[in-house]
Amino acid sequence: MDTQAELAQRFDRSRGRLRDVAYRMLGSADEAEDAVQEAWLRASRAGAEGVTNLNAWLTKIVSRICLDMLRSQRRRGEEFADLAELDKLAPPDPATDPADEAVLADSVGLALLVVLDTLAPAERVAFVLHDLFAVPFEEIAEIVERSTAATKKLASRARQRVHGTAVVSAADFTRRREVVDAFLAASRAGDLEGLLAVLAPDVVRRSDVSTRPGEELEIRGAHRLTQETLANSGRAHFARPILVDGALAIAVAPLGRLRLVLRLTIDDDRITAIEVIGEPARLRGLELALPEGA
């Protein structure tokens, strides 16, 4: 490759894939775009003379940039000034620009972004590159500056954390998943009867945060909880099943940024208790993983 113009042309053709790689590593559309721009600056300064595999070379550049960014600023941990802001967010519209962060997060998987955010920087890079983009371990080893064997262990450790194991039998997990899916579907649809069908009459909801002014930290009874759920139905669009310490739960994660976790107690195919966790310190202490099929 002899000219800057040709390199720029080839880089533009690779930009979409590079942005996809960076987004999965960083979890932020703005930061991913910054990483891609920095990758172009480094590539243009270095030149591609003698480069035989341009895509691999560019992927290595943007991955190193992302790794440095992850190491220097482990998840920003932005908080909404008021958790009630969740209710003002519109669900992602697939018809809008696919580069829109809400659409991008939804397409990648909100629960996946939440779990990826729990990984150490090198683990995240190794997992994303190998498991999501099929980059050979030998190339990843150069990026994370480890041996190939050590890099395989990084990815394996990350994989075990990402894909969790439920603490109940497969049959019991399937039944619980059906209850959770029904609860989420009814919440998103504003389906009163559907909610009452999956909530036990004496269900209790306890929360460690108040998500709107005047909201009670404890609510008892299916009808009261149904009214609250319908009033907060916008949040259900950002809610996904997730494993918390091996138990099936629900994560509320607009743009893939964890805001709330709902721990569920399910008996006889009905939800009998919901514990809402919103305190940042408690959220950080949870062991999160993707449930089977996520």
From TrEMBL:
The keyword Transmembrane helix does not apply. Residues 12-76 form the RNA polymerase sigma-70 region domain. It holds the Pfam family Sigma70_r2. InterPro entries: ECF_Sigma-70_Domain (IPR052704), NTF2-like_dom_sf (IPR032710), RNA_pol_sigma-70_dom (IPR014284), RNA_pol_sigma70_r2 (IPR007627), RNA_pol_sigma70_r4_t2 (IPR013249), RNA_pol_sigma_r2 (IPR013325), RNA_pol_sigma_r3/r4-like (IPR013324), WH-like_DNA-bd_sf (IPR036388). Residues 111-161 form the RNA polymerase sigma factor 70 region 4 type domain. Keywords: Sigma factor, Transcription, Transcription regulation. The keyword Transcription regulation applies. Belongs to the sigma-70 factor family. ECF subfamily. This is Sigma-70 family RNA polymerase sigma factor. The lineage of its organism: Bacteria, Bacillati, Actinomycetota, Actinomycetes, Streptosporangiales.
